[in-house]
Write a structure and sequence with these properties.
The structure is a single chain. This protein is mostly helical. The protein is built from 16 helices and 9 strands. The strands form 4 sheets. The protein has a 3-stranded parallel β-sheet with strand order 5-6-7, with helices on one face. The protein has a two-stranded parallel ribbon with strand order 1-2. Strand 8 and strand 9 form a beta hairpin. Helix 3 crosses helix 6 and helix 6 packs across helix 7. The chain is elongated, with a radius of gyration of 28 Å. The two termini are 50 Å apart. The mean pLDDT is 84.
Length: 393
């Protein structure tokens, strides 16, 4: 999707319903899967006005080209195809006919893929590392055809993004519908939670540093995150054993979570704090929808204050609970000091974090001092570790 947004790239994306026939014989399932995959592409940001987006079966020239390529490709090349060899090896190990249950469709699959690529003279094909062989086969087909009939096809090159060269599935193997280990984008919330909760993770105890190598969760996250976000998670894995690296928990409410989700989050925080003593403060924020694709009814001050008060009672092992005037405004931030918060927050740091999501509240040091004094409290300045300083606020 990122490559499709470049002005110097002409991109082609298709729904491989012919390929699906190799393993799926239910027409209704293929139709449903085609629509779901199309919706997934669009949901992930593919803009059909910038790319050619089509269904494989709508282009009759593709199976026609498949036959032409079949006539110029040696059978020995297909004998070495990974999918075919895997089936043969499995049957051989079971002591049955090596070609048992191997359809001609499975055997010829690389030729159809070659036709998909060569039809549009693709120069580069983004693939996982396990698909490199198919690109090499497509090059063989192009060169063989060009040798016989003249220069008609561009020999394609594989383009591999190393960070997602082979994306792991739920069971740690390569993510594939054949292994039934994918994460369905449009699955109900409960099903998604169950599937993701079943991913095998590092067995080291909470609080111990974790390695990103071999971590399925990290690799899946890396496939969607920016380089900066990936570096942040990598550092978080390494810092897991250093409680001072955690310091704050920002609890965001008012998006798609339920009341049960909020309580579960608080319970996990309290358990983790009991184990590590790593957090210095808890901050409750409300979801800000500007510049996001999530459209929900804002939580409002009432929900914010209820959650703030609940957190103060529930998180009895947290020394500090911070108000969030940056999402609720100065006055509600002041009221939060009467709902469990013992800290009004800072001036600029939090504003820079959340202003990109639509907050417009601003406050000066004298204004903060006044809000605190109006409640009968003494304003004091602190450092980032929530240690009181000798300086006046």
């Amino acid at each position: 999707v990122r490559a499709s947004q470049r002005a110097d790239v002409q991109s082609f994306y298709f729904l491989a319903d012919y390929h699906a026939l190799i393993k799926v014989e239910d027409p209704a399932r293929i139709q449903r899967s085609t629509l779901e995959i199309a919706a997934s592409w669009l949901a992930c940001g593919l803009n059909p006005e910038r790319v050619t987006f089509y269904r494989q079966s709508d282009i009759p020239e593709i199976p026609e080209l498949t036959w032409f390529l079949t006539c110029v490709l040696g059978k020995g090349v297909l004998n070495r195809a990974h999918a075919y060899k895997a089936s043969v090896d499995k049957n051989t190990a079971a002591g049955i006919d090596p070609d048992a249950d191997v359809s001609a469709g499975l055997f010829m699959y690389p030729v159809l893929m070659g036709a998909d690529i060569l039809m549009f003279n693709a120069h580069k094909v983004p693939v996982g590392r396990d698909q490199i062989q198919h690109i090499e086969m497509a090059r063989d087909m192009a060169n063989s055809f060009n040798h016989r009939y003249g220069e008609h096809f561009v020999p394609p090159e594989a383009e591999i993004e190393e960070s997602v060269a082979t994306l792991p599935g739920l069971d740690g193997r390569k993510m594939s519908k054949s292994y039934d280990n994918t994460i369905p984008l449009f699955a109900p919330r409960a099903q998604l939670q169950k599937l993701i909760g079943g991913i095998v993770t590092d067995s080291r105890a909470p609080g111990e540093p974790k390695a990103v190598e071999g971590s399925a969760l990290f690799q899946i996250y890396q496939a969607f995150a920016t380089p900066a976000e990936t570096d942040g998670l990598r550092q978080a894995y390494a810092d897991a054993g250093r409680p001072e690296a955690w310091r704050l928990d920002r609890h965001n409410v008012g998006h798609v979570e339920t009341a049960e989700d909020r309580v579960e989050h608080l319970q996990r925080l309290r358990d983790l704090q009991d184990e590590t003593k790593g957090f210095t403060a808890f901050i409750c924020w409300t979801f800000q929808e500007e510049n996001t694709r999530l459209r929900v009814e804002p939580a409002g001050a009432h929900a914010y204050l209820r959650t703030q008060a609940l957190a103060r009672i529930f998180l009895d092992n947290f020394d500090n609970v911070q108000s969030s005037w940056v999402t609720q405004g100065p006055k509600i931030g002041q009221v939060a000091l009467q709902h469990g918060a013992n800290d009004l927050g800072s001036i600029m740091l939090e504003e820079n974090v959340v202003s990109s999501a639509g907050t417009r509240y601003r406050m000066t040091v004298p204004e903060m001092r006044q809000l605190i004094s109006e409640l009968g409290y003494e304003p004091r300045q602190r450092d980032n570790e929530y240690r009181l300083m000798n300086l006046p606020a």
